[in-house]
């Protein structure tokens, strides 16, 4: 009996950034490389065929997703991106932007028929703005009502292809934290994948990551006390269990 094809995972981590004339544009992302290697190792143990790529330019990042359109895939496609960014954009190591909509377009049904029915799952560790999340006080009972604010929402230009889930390290407009030990978001993902929570349905697993970051993580040093709130968007039509190997 033939073995089923392995699911595939593409992990892209950018740590060093220079412009075309060699100037350093963004700070070095200490801790990101080791974190990505740990995630790659655990995905391999969960029966994924992992491609781990370091310091790729904007053009090379697009090319990597183009290459996935020519590969044989198993039940799932997982991609982890760790880089500098802003809303709707991640940066290549050449400090050039890559629109997330461009990545999603490459993997759309029209451009990539091989992935049409396969759930596509993204975890994106990158800033989405320059605001710092000061957190909120959680009350058990009712208190004074909060003033009305504009609701958070995903950018209206951020459309995802069918059968896709995208989880962001932070809410729109906010920074995502990273230090030499790693990021709040991907460390929480690692913890979940190493524990029994990996057997949960994807939406429950992502909600667990939200809880882990919101209640167990906060910044130290210069940004002492600042928080982070991951969020996700999905148009999957059924429950999926991508890490229950």
From TrEMBL:
| Residue ranges annotated for the Caspase family p20 domain, each copy included | 5-131
Q: Which SUPFAM superfamilies match?
A: Caspase-like
Report any one BP term from Gene Ontology: proteolysis
> GO MF terms on file?
cysteine-type endopeptidase activity
Q: Which PROSITE patterns match?
A: CASPASE_P10, CASPASE_P20
Q: Could you tell me which Gene3D superfamilies the record lists for this protein?
A: 3.40.50.1460
The residue ranges of the Caspase family p10 domain are 182-244
Give the UniProt family note.
Belongs to the peptidase C14A family.
The record's annotation in PANTHER family points to:
CASPASE 14, APOPTOSIS-RELATED CYSTEINE PEPTIDASE (PTHR22576:SF41), MUCOSA ASSOCIATED LYMPHOID TISSUE LYMPHOMA TRANSLOCATION PROTEIN 1/PARACASPASE (PTHR22576)
| Record protein name field | Caspase-3
Identify the species of origin: Spheniscus mendiculus (Galapagos penguin)
């Amino acid at each position: 009996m033939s073995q089923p094809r392995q699911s595939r995972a593409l992990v892209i981590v950018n740590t060093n950034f220079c412009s075309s004339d060699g100037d350093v544009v963004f700070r070095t992302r200490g801790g990101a490389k080791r974190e990505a290697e740990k995630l790659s190792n655990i995905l391999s143990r969960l029966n994924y065929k992992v491609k781990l790529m370091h310091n790729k330019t904007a053009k090379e990042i697009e090319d990597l997703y183009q290459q996935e359109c020519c590969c044989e895939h198993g039940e799932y496609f997982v991609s982890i991106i760790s880089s500098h960014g802003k809303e709707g954009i991640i940066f290549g190591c050449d400090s050039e932007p890559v629109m997330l909509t461009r990545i999603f377009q490459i993997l759309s049904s029209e451009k990539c028929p091989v992935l049409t029915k396969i759930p596509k799952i993204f975890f994106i560790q990158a800033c989405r703005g320059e605001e710092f999340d000061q957190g909120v006080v959680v009350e058990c009972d009712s208190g004074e009502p909060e003033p009305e604010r504009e609701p958070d929402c995903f950018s209206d230009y951020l459309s995802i292809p069918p059968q896709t889930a995208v989880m962001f390290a932070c809410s729109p407009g906010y920074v995502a934290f990273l230090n030499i030990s790693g990021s709040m978001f991907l460390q929480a993902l690692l913890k979940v994948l190493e524990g029994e929570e990996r057997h949960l349905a994807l939406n429950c697993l992502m909600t667990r990551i939200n809880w882990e970051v919101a209640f167990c993580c906060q910044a130290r040093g210069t940004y002492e006390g600042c928080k982070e709130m991951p969020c996700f968007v999905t148009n999957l039509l059924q429950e999926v269990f991508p890490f229950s190997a």
